[in-house]
Specification:
The protein contains 20 helices and 34 strands. Bound molecules: beta-D-glucopyranose.
């Protein structure tokens, strides 16, 4: 745990320079806009501990999978998210000495991530080794309005010196990845241009040949007056800069305004990249810092208007939830259906910035409730775009006739993860992709999605499950062998209850969806059938047979489902009875010891009971919860939210709160000692769910919004906003009463604590 950040409802604040935690802070104070992201690296030179990180959405490098024990079907590569050319750099030199906080005495250091307005600000006083003292204040943001643009206001005031200050704004494409082998570099330079007060580099990634144009243009003011200045162009391989020498007198403020842009060949033709980059930079420069910032602030205000959660009586919880919402909105905006949500977003290299089942299982509900319907829809369309590749992927493993296996980890639809027990066996991800289609339609009512895109995906997935199970002669039931469930602390198990359950659910839902599309859009249905060569009677009977005869491991005496066959052969020990020095197991125990133990990394049976809670009675859910929760170590950040929601459903309010706390400030307080690698973006959506679905008890059933709120004892009240079927609602939960405000013109009916209410346009319900 690292608790060095100040509690504040709207900002993350570091006071005093915590050098040893710098990489941690660089993750926490990251900024982004869905198209680009930037760790909180310093603009000026810094020789201390740092993880340089600038990222452009969709740009990756396929690193060759190299293993001696190659297995057929292995992916060719794993995807690295690439550190992109540095656009933030501004070097400062005074009297021949570079300003470098690692070489200075630092006073009054302050770093603030202003989440309300979406910018990063840093200020300090540095005493350099040559005795010069300067005051610096820098402010920067990645515009969510002009999403190819980043802007910096960098102010420097000499406090005991009059003379020349050398300033060099630059772009550096000679950068490395921390995770590169043998310091391998991934960018080739294609083009470079330095002009008066501006510079551009077009760089291309090796192998994938993505091109990114990075551009900059800057102006300088002294005492708030624009000044004219000469600059010396620096033009060398993979680097462009302009060195400016300016005489400044003691106490006067010099400000550099640097406007930068990233344009990617994913969005512009390679031929036009440089030209377009110049226009984007020029327009940003023309607009100016203040206009860009005020547009950006207004856009953030609109985002908060729809997605804020207010917690009264607990500033640290308030800060925690806003931090999560802020980063989710910085990572994915839904503007581009080719993009998705990497587990670390734009805040680090780990997990390759790729898409996991996290998106469908954990992130979708946040975007469904807090953004335009198009945003969540684009997450679904993303998988539809990858259907062909999922069919190819299944083909590599021997599946045929249009069976689709979505990758566990992907950038472009191809599998890019190479641990056999995950790549080949963690096939439950297919279930989450189908579940997300259901979840989206259940929430929005947009049932047309099925005919348009959803049904093709569902049929591909159902075909896969059909081929993946087989009839066991011994059991007289269909079984599924050799899988890894969500709990990755077990591999290659037989009949993982969650996977078996979600597999048959997928087939049932596919059958229902076929019936729906056939009835409502017969022509489209015929089109789909001919496109994917689907003859209903040939395939659906097999699915029905499996649905009716699937095997689900359970222990009747205990009244629980078994995570997999023979789970009860394990020695059942509760986590609370473990010597605490053995935790976290993944750092303290050998892998084989973990595999043999009963300890569960993340919700598995309980994940299934969470998705399909309506199909089980509360006592069944309770018995399973009481069995599995005490043996779960939650060593995946995705786990506690599911337990929190389930505990809330079961009326275990303290447990629900305890589980919520495990994720709410996971990164801010660095619980897992890994924040320096980047933030846990996908689990942030789980924290949001723990409040809205857990404490708020929000569900959608039969086209109606249900709420069943309770308030954690420590809080005075909490309020959240959700969009539902055209209405914008604010739900305020207090110790004494619950208020529901319909802030929109759309009437909506609600079931609060089991009772029906109709809420007209702009109306309040107080109970
Ligand atoms: C979890 C997976 C998850 C991945 C990326 C792993 O630790 O076990 O369920 O998909 O992290 O977040």
């Amino acid at each position: 745990m690292k608790q060095y950040l100040k509690a504040d409802p709207w900002s993350i604040i570091e006071e005093g320079f915590h050098r040893a935690y710098n990489e941690n802070s660089e993750s926490i104070f990251s900024i982004g806009n869905g198209r680009m992201g930037q760790r909180a690296n310093f603009e000026e030179k810094f020789t201390g501990k740092t993880l340089q990180g600038s990222y452009v959405a969709g740009v990756y490098y396929p690193d060759k999978t190299r293993v001696g024990w190659w297995k057929n079907g292995y992916p060719e590569y794993f995807a690295k998210v690439l550190n992109a050319p540095n656009w933030i750099g501004i070097d400062i030199t005074i009297n021949g000495k570079a300003l470098d906080l690692n070489q200075c005495e630092v006073e009054d250091f302050r770093r603030e991530l202003n989440m309300k307005e979406g910018y990063l600000e840093r200020s300090f006083i540095a005493k350099m080794k040559n005795g010069v003292k300067v005051k610096v204040n820098s402010k920067r943001f990645c515009s969510i309005v002009e999403d190819e643009v980043g802007a910096i206001r960098y102010s420097i005031t000499p406090l005991n010196y009059s003379g020349v200050i050398d300033i060099t704004p630059y772009i550096d494409a000679d950068i490395v990845n921390k995770d590169s082998n043998y310091d391998e570099k991934f960018w080739n330079e294609i083009d470079r241009e330095v002009r008066r007060r501006q510079g551009y580099i077009v760089a291309e990634t090796k192998k994938t040949a993505f091109q990114v144009a990075t551009g900059m243009k800057f102006s300088i003011t002294v005492e708030e007056e624009d000044i004219d200045f000469d600059s010396k162009k620096i033009n060398k391989e993979k680097y462009v800069g302009n060195k400016v020498s300016i005489g400044v007198s003691e106490g006067s403020e010099l400000v550099v305004y640097k406007y930068a842009a990233y344009l990617s060949s994913e969005n512009h033709s390679k031929k036009e990249l440089l030209g377009n980059c110049k226009s984007v930079v020029k327009n940003a420069f023309k607009k100016g810092f203040n206009t860009l910032l005020s547009e950006h602030k207004n856009a953030w205000a609109a985002k908060w208007e729809e997605s804020d959660i207010i917690i009264e009586g607990d500033v640290s919880a308030q800060q925690g939830i806003r931090f999560n919402i802020f980063h989710l909105n910085q990572t994915y905006t839904g503007e581009d259906e080719r993009l998705n949500i990497g587990p670390k977003g734009f805040t680090g290299e780990k997990y390759g910035g790729s898409t996991y089942w996290d998106t469908e299982a954990y992130c979708l509900p946040f975007y469904l409730s807090t953004a335009d319907q198009r945003v969540a829809r684009n997450l679904l369309v993303y998988r539809h775009r990858h259907l062909e590749k999922a069919i190819e992927n299944a083909g590599k493993l021997g599946f045929v006739k249009g069976a689709a296996l979505y990758p566990m980890v992907t950038m472009n639809g191809e599998e890019c993860h190479n641990e056999w027990e995950i790549t080949f066996e963690e096939i439950h991800r297919n279930g989450a992709i189908a579940y997300a289609i259901y979840d989206y339609i259940n929430y929005t009512g947009d049932v047309n999605y099925l005919a348009e895109y959803g049904l093709e995906v569902l049929i591909g997935i159902a075909r896969f499950w059909k081929q993946r199970v087989h009839m066991s002669a011994a059991k007289g039931k269909y079984v599924m062998l050799g899988v890894t469930g969500p709990n990755e602390y077990e591999n290659n198990v037989n009949n993982n209850w969650y996977t078996n359950y979600i597999a048959t659910w997928c087939m049932k839902y596919t059958l229902e969806s076929i019936a729906h599309v056939k009835q409502t859009s017969p022509q489209r249905y015929a089109e789909i059938c001919s496109k994917i060569n689907f003859i209903e009677i040939r395939e659906s009977d097999d699915w029905k047979e499996i649905i009716d005869n699937m095997y689900y491991p359970e222990d009747k005496e205990k009244g629980i489902f078994l995570q997999q066959d023979n789970f009860l052969d394990k020695e059942i020990i509760k986590v609370k009875d473990l010597d605490p020095t053995h935790l976290p197991l993944n750092q303290k125990w050998s892998w084989d010891r973990i595999l043999r133990s009963c300890f569960i990394k993340q919700a598995d049976v309980l994940q299934g009971l969470y998705f399909f809670e309506d199909q089980f009675d509360v006592d069944t859910i309770r018995r399973n919860f009481e069995f599995y929760e005490p043996i779960t170590v939650h060593e995946s950040s995705l786990s506690p939210c599911v337990h929190s929601i389930q505990a809330a459903l079961l009326g275990m309010e303290e447990k629900a709160y305890e589980m919520y706390l495990r994720t709410a400030r996971l990164d801010l307080d660095d619980y897992n000692n890994d924040t320096e690698d980047g933030l846990h973006i996908t689990s942030m959506a789980g924290t949001w769910m723990a409040i809205v679905k857990g404490f708020g008890g929000m569900r959608v059933k039969d086209d109606k919004l249900h709420l069943n709120p309770f308030i954690p004892k420590k809080w005075k009240g909490f309020a959240f906003k959700i969009r539902f079927r055209g209405a914008l609602l604010q739900i305020k939960v207090g110790q004494e009463k619950t208020e529901i405000l319909n802030l929109s013109d759309t009437p909506v009916s609600i079931i609060l604590n089991g009772k029906d209410y109709a809420l007209n346009a702009v109306e309040n319900l107080v109970l």
